């Protein structure tokens, strides 16, 4: 919506509070997307991986009851980030009311305001925290799957079970690589946000917009039943 409005009706962004709402909504959906993906990766790790640690066993037993609260917490946390972005941009715009176009509006919001840097630091910390969560979950899950695969090879287990484990490892590894690329471009977007219409900024937004769809396709194609349903559709 933001790209459509900025390209087709750029001066519509000057109407208060359209620009603030779009930026706040973008931050909310972007943050919730990251944290829900991280929660999903942790859910896979706890459900599939096998470790004899007492804390891990407790999480495995109670993970089904924890999932709704994790999702609710992710949405509420993302909502707080969206409100902070809206408030910060609104203050920056109100300080600079003498702009005549979208470029000046953008520069007004990304000027070196005192309240802007704590927000950038907070968003960067949120991105880094979710990324670390995904790293630990993916590494533990890949290690568990690889160890179990080696045991099955020594015990001459059937090939179908082996194929399922290899497919799960490929799915987690591809998601981890994709999440890493998305995280790098999120940080680059924050770094280059001081430049209006930067090529790096455009590339960063493109990667971020592609991430949810590609992640969904990986989940569908890694599940035979979902893949058959997709082909039927």
UniProtKB/TrEMBL annotation:
Molecular function terms from GO: bitter taste receptor activity; G protein-coupled receptor activity
Residues passing through the membrane, by range: 26-46, 67-89, 116-143, 172-194, 200-222
Membrane topology: Multi-pass membrane protein
Any one annotated GO CC term: membrane
Main localization of the protein described in the UniProt heading: membrane
Location of the protein in the cell: Membrane
Top-level taxon in the UniProt lineage: Eukaryota
Name of a matching Pfam family: TAS2R
Keywords: G-protein coupled receptor, Membrane, Receptor, Sensory transduction, Taste, Transducer, Transmembrane, Transmembrane helix
Family according to the record: Belongs to the G-protein coupled receptor T2R family.
Protein name: Taste receptor type 2 member 40
Source organism of this protein record: Cardinalis cardinalis (Northern cardinal)
């Amino acid at each position: 919506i933001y790209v459509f409005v900025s390209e087709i009706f750029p001066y519509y962004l000057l109407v208060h509070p359209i620009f603030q709402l779009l930026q706040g909504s973008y931050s909310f959906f972007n943050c919730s997307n990251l944290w829900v993906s991280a929660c999903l990766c942790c859910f896979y790790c706890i459900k599939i991986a096998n470790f004899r640690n007492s804390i891990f066993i407790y999480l495995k037993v109670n993970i089904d009851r924890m999932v709704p609260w994790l999702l609710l917490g992710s949405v509420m946390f993302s909502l707080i980030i969206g409100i902070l972005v809206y408030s910060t941009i609104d203050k920056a715009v109100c300080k600079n009311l003498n702009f005549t176009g979208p470029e000046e509006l953008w520069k007004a919001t990304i000027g070196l305001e005192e309240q802007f840097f704590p927000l950038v630091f907070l968003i960067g910390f949120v991105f880094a925290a979710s990324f670390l969560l995904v790293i630990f979950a993916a590494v533990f899950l890949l290690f568990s799957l690889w160890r179990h695969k080696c045991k099955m090879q020594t015990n001459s287990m059937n090939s179908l079970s082996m194929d399922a484990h290899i497919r799960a490892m490929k799915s987690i590894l591809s998601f981890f690589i994709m999440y890493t690329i998305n995280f790098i471009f999120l940080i680059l977007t924050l770094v280059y946000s001081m430049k209006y219409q930067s090529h790096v900024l455009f590339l960063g937004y493109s990667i971020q917009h592609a991430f949810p769809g590609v992640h969904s396709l990986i989940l569908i194609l890694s599940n035979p039943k979902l893949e058959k349903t997709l082909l039927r559709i």
